[in-house]
């Protein structure tokens, strides 16, 4: 963990270090902190002092400091969490829009240590509420339902809620998924033929915010994925990422967009 950041308190009436002349003190603070992050002087994961201490050092009110930090968080430079305070954001993890990848690999590509924490797992009959993950309720058939938290450097990276069809994914009921992630096991054990994705922005509920260490209502990226094999559903999964730490990428040629020159 990097040592606490120590911005120099400006003289009363002056702009923070590195700020240009003109603009409000809010603008000066945002520009100064952004420069420190972009220049690498405040590296990813660095812990900022508490809001009141920063306000004192920059010679502004706590409200002004809060607004400046909030803007930097919305812009993706900072991550603000209830329990751990404010930190410099890690570089955003990337997922391909259509590829099915192991989240463990996503985290490791970003240079962070990966861990999966299984929150709950049980075999039960399918319910109407399962339609969110499967597109259609699985009727009376049995499902394996589980929820787990993917962590990067022991911090929440993604909340996973998954249904598995044990009639197709043989061996799913015997897996406890404490040492092997559900997605990793499925990729190696069950060939799939058709997959669908739904991607949207959502706001974290109180329960989700608590697990992801976010503020209630904070923006998240939701990916709902369904896979099939031989006309039968294999799995449905909802992946919920903190919006400030994740992005989707897609690479495609002119043939995918209707020809060259079309934006």
TrEMBL record:
Keywords: DNA-binding, Transcription, Transcription regulation
Family matches, as Pfam families: GntR (PF00392), UTRA (PF07702)
Region span, Disordered: 1-25
Top-level taxonomic group: Bacteria
GO molecular function, one term: DNA binding
Stretches assigned to the HTH gntR-type domain: 23-91
Claim: DNA-binding is one of the keywords in the record: yes
Alphabetized PANTHER family for the sequence: MANNOSYL-D-GLYCERATE TRANSPORT/METABOLISM SYSTEM REPRESSOR MNGR-RELATED, TRANSCRIPTIONAL REGULATOR PHNF-RELATED
Protein name in the entry: UTRA domain-containing protein
Lineage: Bacteria, Pseudomonadati, Pseudomonadota, Alphaproteobacteria, Hyphomicrobiales
């Amino acid at each position: 963990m990097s040592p606490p950041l120590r911005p120099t308190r400006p003289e009363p009436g002056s702009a923070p270090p590195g700020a240009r002349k003109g603009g409000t003190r809010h603008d000066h603070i945002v520009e100064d902190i952004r420069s420190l992050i972009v220049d690498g002087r405040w590296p990813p994961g660095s812990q900022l002092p508490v809001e009141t201490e920063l306000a004192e050092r920059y010679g502004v009110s706590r409200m002004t400091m809060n607004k400046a930090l909030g803007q930097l968080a919305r812009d993706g430079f900072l991550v603000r969490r209830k329990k751990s305070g404010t930190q410099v954001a890690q570089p955003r993890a990337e997922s391909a829009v259509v590829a099915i990848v192991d989240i463990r690999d996503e985290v490791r590509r970003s240079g962070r240590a990966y861990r999966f924490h299984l929150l709950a797992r049980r075999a039960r009959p399918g319910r109407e509420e399962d339609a969110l993950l499967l597109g259609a309720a699985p009727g009376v058939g049995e499902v394996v339902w589980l929820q787990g938290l993917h962590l990067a450097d022991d911090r929440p990276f993604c909340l996973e809620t998954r249904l598995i069809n044990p009639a197709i994914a043989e061996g799913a009921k015997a897996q406890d998924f404490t040492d092997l992630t559900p997605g990793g096991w499925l990729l190696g054990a069950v060939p799939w033929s058709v997959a669908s994705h739904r991607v949207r922005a959502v706001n974290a509920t109180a329960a989700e915010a608590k697990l992801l260490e976010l503020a209630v209502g904070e923006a998240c990226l939701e990916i709902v994925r369904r896979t099939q094999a031989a006309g039968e559903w294999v799995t449905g999964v909802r992946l919920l990422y903190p919006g400030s730490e994740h992005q989707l990428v897609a690479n495609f040629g002119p043939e995918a967009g209707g020809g060259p020159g079309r934006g």
